[in-house]
Amino acid sequence: MKHVAIVAFEGMSMFHLSVPLAIFSDATLDKNSFSVKVCAEHKGPISVSGGVDLFISHTFEAAAQADIIIVPSWPPEQEIASTFHHLLLDAYKQKKLIVGLCLGAYALAYSGLLDGKKATTHWKFGSDFKKRFPSVDLDTNPLFVINENIITSAGSAAAIDCCLHIVKSIYGVKFANQIARMMVSPPSRTGGQNQFIESPVVHKPSDTRLAKLVDIFQQDLSDSITVKQAASLCSMSVRTFTRHFKANYGTSFVSWQIMMRLNASLELLETSQTSISTISETLGFSSEQIFRKHFKAQFDCSPQAWRALFNSK
């Protein structure tokens, strides 16, 4: 059994606290895999977001006995107390796993543990983080970064990927995927994936020409409409169409087509036994190999792995 300490503090986000709690406690069917304690500098009540009050029963003394210390968030402007500082330094020296989820990287940076090391945090706070901690090699692109016995993750949902990675590294991919399924989450993405994951925007643009194009494509996803053909359908030059489409959808027409097809493939994988080759052909991919390549790049797993997790038929 691995002992996990999750650091809590006054005013923290309930969401950030709930992610490691859910993965290491609530969603774990094998109750002998992790023992979880929520710890703070002092015992007693704290208020978290949403008007929720929590009573903390464990101090940093209990956290010092843990195998894994998780800091799920931290106020960017707030330096850490000396007791917290010593907890992190001692844990690092003892080769315990120290995890800074999202803005939790700030606490680790204040301790000095990230000096000279690569780390990540929420992309929105990248500039602020670099100003406060110029000695840290910050990279806001990855979902999470592993450096010795320290892991830092990007914002919000990336914390789920990071925690699932920890589970996978200890108990294996099958166990981690069981937890992912319990949480109705896809298998954990790798740390090297970017925080920004393109998704198709399905709203109808105010421009009726683009709206007509979107309707045509959605009616038959196998239809291979080129950029030149799309521009012609919209009565625009290729250059104008390319600029206009990206302004409305935030991505290129080709990337949007791929994502629309990939999203459609998820439903087929989850609700049918249609073969992978038939799915790729039905959705207009030039080959099964190309479909697999795009699927892996977007969801960091194979179509078969997705089906195994989410198809109950």
UniProtKB/TrEMBL annotation:
Kindly give the PROSITE patterns that the UniProt entry links to this protein: HTH_ARAC_FAMILY_1, HTH_ARAC_FAMILY_2
Domain (HTH araC/xylS-type): give its ranges: 211-309
A molecular-function term among this protein's GO annotations? sequence-specific DNA binding
Task: For this UniProt record, give its keywords in alphabetical order, as a comma-separated list.
Answer: DNA-binding, Transcription, Transcription regulation
Q: Does the keyword Transcription apply?
A: yes
Family matches, as Pfam families: DJ-1_PfpI, HTH_18
Q: Which residues form the signal peptide?
A: none
Q: Which InterPro entries match?
A: Class_I_gatase-like (IPR029062), DJ-1/PfpI (IPR002818), Homeodomain-like_sf (IPR009057), HTH_AraC (IPR018060), HTH_AraC-typ_CS (IPR018062), INH-QAR (IPR052158)
What SMART domains has UniProt attached to this entry?
A: HTH_ARAC
Record bears the keyword ATP-binding? no
Q: What is this protein called?
A: HTH araC/xylS-type domain-containing protein
